[in-house]
Amino acid sequence: MSITATVTDPGVTGSSVKSWKAPIGFGFGALLALFVFAIGGPATTAVFRVSDDSDRFRLADIALPANVVGWVVALALIAIAVYSFLQVRRGDRINRWAGIAYAVLFVVGFLTWVVGIADRPSISLAGLVAGSVTLAIPLIFGSLSGVLCERVGVVNIAIEGQLLSGAFAAAVAASISGSAYVGLLAAAFAGVLVSLILAIFSIKYLVNQIIVGVVLNVLVSGLTGFLASTLLSRDSATFNSPPGLPEVRIPLLADIPVIGPILFQQTIVGYLMYVAVIVIWLGLFRTRWGLRVRAVGEHPQAADTMGIKVNATRFWNVLLGGAVAGFGGAFFTLVSVSTFTRDMTAGQGYIALAALIFGRWNPIGAFFAALLFGFATNLRFVLSIIGTDVPSQFLAMLPYIVTILAVAGLVGRSRPPAAGGIPYVKE
For residue 18, what pLDDT band results from cuts at 50, 70 and 90? Predict the structure, then answer.
């Protein structure tokens, strides 16, 4: 995955137009780092706690002089910006590792600066990472749902509605049955119901997929909001008091510093997330089923010629995507909080859609993109706790700023499946 430095003009054979998008973006970020992290860097020491006091194997804290780190990061970013400028000027591609190094350096510089100016210049890296993974769980399920749908040629704008319906169904079913696992299954079923409507209208009746998805989001929001204000609020003890999913701790592995509690001390939803990412990636890129799915999403006419039932494949993939998103919705009421509230997903379905695009319609890429957005969200809460001078309004906007930058700037020439959003009618 590399940052493209040239863009081929389809109207002119053999010609290319240089794209200065990456150098301009790198240059702007480097100047920002120079004035904020370096020149405006505090003369304090930012402390990053790698382990908590309760960890069996405790690692030493990392203490970084904020002003020194600011200058080192700013100069390194300027060097990468100059390198990208020279590469584009020569008509070459920018090495993908340059983009990765730039992103890592910028995050290090920002964290060191923002912790250094805080009232308590100390932060727990373990807590920051663990919280980021937890907040990213519904985003990962939502983005995987989008991958399953869009790889087969159906644009899934209804991720928000699938998450919200899953959260509602999980709360009601778990409350009535007294079992969180029943609620988990109900959440998957609710996601399938929303996907069923999406599939029927967009595949069978050829309605515009974007419009159907937006209408479904509004429909689910209104329906669950109405039921929450009538049925759930009148008897919350019966219908809106779901038991939570317990954490399952894997002995020894959970004691590994930093990553142990993150990977091996999760609820069943957390473990399902890891399994879903691996299984969907293997299924799409290592099985005959995945080859057929990608063929339908890229060239449905050719797939039909080879005997693949295009619309049937799309139909079942959309339903499977709904089930996956439903599991993500269960996170809100069975893990995060113990009650359903109106529109509690708060637009995370749209952020999951951005993670899908940023991850280039790949399960692994979508996973890491969702982690990035989860990190931005958790950073807002952590920074407010340590008393940073950064305005709270900016911290509240941080996840959405990252979303906009990811979709508008960092994705570059990421190409969706060729038949995405195009209904297929057999001739």
Answer: low
